[in-house]
Structure formats: structure tokens, C-alpha cells
Write a structure and sequence with these properties.
Layout (H helix, E strand, L loop, with lengths): L5 E6 L4 E6 L2 E6 L12 H19 L3 E6 L9 E3 L12 E5 L8 E6 L3 H9 L2 E6 L13 E10 L5 H17 L5 E4 L5 E11 L1 H18 L4 E2 L11 E4 L9 E2 L18 H10 L9 H11 L14
Parallel strand pairs: 12-13
Antiparallel strand pairs: 1-2, 2-3, 4-5, 4-7, 4-8, 6-7, 8-14, 9-11, 9-13, 10-11
Helix pairs in contact: 1-2, 1-6, 3-5
Length: 315
Amino acid sequence: MSPERARPARASAERRTTTEVDGRRLTLSNLDKVLYPSGFTKGEVISYYVHVAPVLLPHLDGRPVTLVRFPDGTAAGSFFEKRVPSHAPGWVRTAAVPTGAGGRDGTIEHLVIDGLPALVWVANLAAIELHVPMWRVVADGAIGPVDTMVFDLDPGAPATVVECCEVAAMVRDEIDAAGLRASPKTSGSKGLQVYVPIDPPQPWKSVHAAARSLARRLERRRPELVLSNMRRSLRSGRVLIDWSQNHPAKTTVAPYSLRGGDAPFVSTPVTWDEVARCQDRADPAVLQFGPDQVLRRVAELGDLMGAGAGTRREA
């Protein structure tokens, strides 16, 4: 799956470009539109997603996606879009997803990004952020078993990602003791996330309960640093371990997704050595990566969150 498979065919005076992507004909618009205050354009967003697709798409495969769209740029606000847009091409895969854990409130038809054409199509919508649940679609109207446990570490000011690194190491040690493996990634914003593959996949309630138990255990151990209670008034100077992300109705930003903001930072898989370096240097910039940096990392390291890759502490 190479960038050469997404080639512009012609451009019109209306700033529209027709391109063919893996046999699908797409019309892209306003590629020179600036989406970030830093000057990063819509065309650059699409280009990044084309180039990162080989490592991004496996993390989206089979998962209903929630888009965060910034049609007028990241400085002008955004909106979440769960339902498939009415103008979606007929070839885009969709799935009926329950609106609640038990499916009692009906379903919403979600997009499932299963290839490069769909990825390019959503990027052209200025869907900068891609969020997915920790389960895959098994059938319309059904929630599949959970294949990943996630801990979303959210610092309350004046705490930063530096404090998140310390908490992430605590989470990792607990996961190691359970005989599992943990993979860190940046949120692309102010926090850090720890992913734990679950093989074989488990019912969501058991994963949800295990994540909550771990968070509360660490809070009891380090109450001055760790918080498991979602109440915002308690967060100052502490790191919330958001275990609630393991609910099937919740989504987490996908690995390699761009984030909104002043500059195009990416939710980036990292090594445990990099986590330790950020903590030792007390420098959040150690764990900030833009699109070009991420593509260089992928070329050198591959997918650090791929099966068996980069998920253990380096010697």
C-alpha cells in the first residue's frame, strides 16, 4: 500500500482534484486550505494519512470509527461525527453499532475504515482525528469482545505528561506482574496512554472491571499522584487513570491519528525508554511528534504497537 496508489488525475478551477485510490475514484477539495494555525494544510493532512496508512489501517480494521472534524480549521472548533454522512460513497463499509452497552436504545450506522480509499475520503472531510473503541464489529447491532485494555492518563495542571510517565511505568509494572504486555503511546495532546492486548478477547465487563481495579489500587498506593475518580475538582496536580475508556460506548484516539490544536501533533506509539527519558528530563517535548517525525520513526522502527513489537522495556 504505497502513496503512489493515490495519484491526482486532474484539477479544476474550483479547487477540486479527481484522484484514483486503489481503484476508487475520489474528488478532493480545497487541498491548499490551511487547517492548523501553524500553516499545515488539508492537502498535507491527506498526504500524511496516505503515507502512514500501512501502520494506521491495522489499528482501524473492523472498528467503528468516530470522526472529529474541523471543517474550518482547528482554531475554529470541531464536531464529533458518529453517524455515517449522508453523502458517503456506496462502497464505504458501515456497521450498525448499539448506542448503549446493551443496545437497548437502538443503533447508529458508523463508518468502518477498511482501506486506503476510505481513509483518504474521511481525511478530505477534514476529519483530522480518528477515534475507535477497543472492540471490533462482529455483526450489525452487536458489540464484539474487547481485544485491548486501555488506560488513558490525563494530567491535571500543573501536572504534565512528565507525571503521566511516572504513572505509566506504575501501570506497566502491574501489567507485567499479571503476565501481560503494555504498550505506551502519546495522546497527541497533553497525556499518555497505555494499551494492553487481550488475547483471547474478553467480554467488556470483565476488562472494564480489571482496569478499574488496577486504577484504584494505584490510587491507594500513591494518592498524591494518582486519581481514579472522574471528578474534575479533584484533578489538580494529579494524573487521572481513566479506566472508563474500557466501556464499549467509549472511544480512544487511534494510534497514528493526528490531533487538533495549534500544530499537527500525532498520537504516537513510543518506547518505554522514551517514557523514562521524558520523566528523567522533565521535558514534555520529548514525547511530542509531528507528521514528518512519525513517518521517519515508522520507517526506522516499524509499528511499535504491532504484534510483539516494542511492547517490552528495553534492556
